[in-house]
Amino acid sequence: MSRWSRSSSLDRAVDRRTEADLDEAWQRGVVLSIDGEGRIAAADGQALIAPTQGRRGANDIYLGVFDGRDWFASPESSLDGETIGWREAPADEYDPLAAAVFLARWNRQNPACERCGGPTAPDQGGIRRVCGSCGALSFARMDPCVIVAITDPDDRLLLARNFQWPPHRVSIIAGFIEAGESVEQACHREAAEEVGVELAELSYVSSQPWPMPRSLMLGFEARAVDSRIRVDGDEILEGAFYTRTDLAAAVSSGGIVLPGGASIARHLIDRWISAG
Ligand SMILES: [Zn+2]
């Protein structure tokens, strides 16, 4: 089971978000700073978590209770000094940091009402925004994506290289879910579009929030009907099915580089490796 399959270590405190609740939480809370790119102020490779000072700002985001303390995030347009990305932080802080990056970016990117275009302001500590003109509420959302570990009938794993990645970097197939499409349909479509593979079996494994940009990754395992691949040459430049032995050799020689350990892509790859 991945860490994302267990209950969150962040209590979002949804019933303690009146202005009075938030002011009280601020008095005893801690705060981290996030810039417009979702980078977190840091010291010595760790997110800088400081006691709150002064009054709570209108844009300060209440994340909830983590490790017995009330956590806030202060969005800043830019940060001087050391910063880290959320997945460079210690894994036990992923839950509050992922929420912080999501909410800071979502609040920054939604200053106007979707219904009337009027100015919006954070409400309930920044988990939603309210329009000052028409009163419409908007809620922080994530964009669902599928990510699929595809094996062929010989149980070899398909790894492919996206055109945006450096040489040797490979991963499994992923893509956004289109409007009006089911999650499973997105898996079939992405496999067909990107690598020309038809899926025979498909099963859900687990999910992971991915705040950059604002994705919810839905992880699947699938079996291809055969071993043929036809990369699209556009989004995917190359791809191949690997045995576990071939994969280990290619990784140790530097011939391929796998996704980082914080990703669901790596979780699905490791799951296939350990199933052999
Ligand atoms: Zn409005």
Shape: elongated
Radius of gyration: 21 Å
**Strand-residue fraction?**
25-35%
**What CATH architecture of the largest domain would you give?**
Alpha-Beta Complex
What is the H-and-E element order?
Answer: EHEEEEEEEHEEEEEEHEEEHH
Average predicted local confidence, pLDDT: 95
**Would you tell me the structural class of the helices and strands?**
alpha+beta
- Main sheet characteristics: 5 strands, mixed
Low-confidence stretches: none
Domain count: 2
Named once each, the bound ligands are:
zinc ion
Query: Count of DSSP helices?
Result: 5
**Which topology of the largest domain does CATH recognise?**
Nucleoside Triphosphate Pyrophosphohydrolase
Protein name: NAD(+) diphosphatase
Cofactor: Zn(2+); Mg(2+)
GO molecular function: metal ion binding; NADH pyrophosphatase activity
GO cellular component, one term: cytosol
